[in-house]
Amino acid sequence: MEEIKEKNVEENTKEKTEYEIVGVKFKSTGKMYYFDASCIRLEAGDCAIVETSRGVEYGFITLSNRMMPTSALVLPLRPVLRKATSEDTAHYEENRAKEADAAKIFEQKIAEHKLEMKLVDVEYTFDNSKLLFYFTSDGRVDFRELVKDLASVFRTRIELRQIGIRDETKMIGGIGMCGRPYCCKKFLDDFAQVSIKMAKEQNLSLNSQKISGACGRLMCCLRYEHDAYEDALKNLPKIDSTVKTPDGVGTVFELVPLAGIVKVKFPSDDQQGFTYRQYPADSVTPVRKND
């Protein structure tokens, strides 16, 4: 009997190398989080009640049960409490309706307190223990008196979160210049860093109106092909470098990375201008300064 107890203790204390998890989202375009689902079976499309750092929440299953190594997880994992019942779903929908009323009251209160704030979204936690207001503002806002006022109205814990313009665009959504819904609203879980260098490498116009999204920041889609362009550019000469071509020595003035084309200019015969030709990358050779 003692041997069996010792064996159970060893198994419980042994460090786990993998967990059975499910992926959960709390908003259709929000980030997916992993939860411990070792005691329950859920499929993508189900709804579940889970334990989070801010309390009990109603979430949407986007990834069904699977084993995942601990190296790919942030531990400790919080558990899935249960599959959502019809009563849970009704309560969730009731909260959504209450959020619309809360938004109207919030707008009235910021007008009364004369605060420069723009409400973006309102969110009740599933257990109604907290009411969150997301807002934007050009600067810092002292909203301490506003919070006290809201707490007296809603009789719950109030939390105000100032968000950036990219988060605002993600929450509101819209149609991009490509004619499709904003990527951040449709499928992006998080914002990756985007730089003007990405636009340059893709030979895009550096006109800010053409490469900026509705949020006023560089478009997220500039990153999508960045790795492919970076790999292609490794095999091409630099702009303004001197290269040897089948027609002689010239200067690179433009590159078409994905097509592997190098455009070269040569002094014209009359020395009054240049002639321009293009070549496959493997037919031009960089000329070193010492050559």
Helix content: 25-40%
How many E-type strands?
A: 13
Indicate the structural class: alpha+beta
DSSP helical segment count: 8
Distance between the termini: 84 Å
What's the rounded overall pLDDT mean? Answer: 88
Pick out the low-confidence regions.
1-13
Using the alpha-carbon principal axes, give the shape.
Answer: elongated
Biggest sheet architecture = 5 strands, antiparallel
Q: Please state the CA-atom Rg, rounded to the nearest Å.
A: 29 Å
Tell me what portion of residues adopts beta-strand conformation. 25-35%
**SSE arrangement, N to C:** HEEEEEHEEHEHHHHHEEEEE
Structural key phrases:
alpha+beta, disordered N terminus, 291 residues, 5-stranded antiparallel β-sheet
Model description:
- This protein has 291 residues and is of the alpha+beta class.
- The chain has helices at 2-13, 86-112, 144-154, 165-172, 183-186, 196-201, 208-211, 226-233, and strands spanning 18-25, 33-36, 47-52, 55-69, 80-83, 118-124, 130-136, 157-162, 242-245, 248-256, 261-267, 274-280, 285-286.
- The strands form three sheets. Strands 2-1-4-3-5 form a five-stranded antiparallel β-sheet. Strands 12-11-10-9-13 form a five-stranded antiparallel β-sheet, with no helix packed on it.
- Helix 2 packs across helix 3.
- The radius of gyration is 29 Å and the shape is elongated.
- The protein starts with a helix and ends in a 5-residue tail after the last strand.
- The model is unreliable at 1-13 (pLDDT under 50).
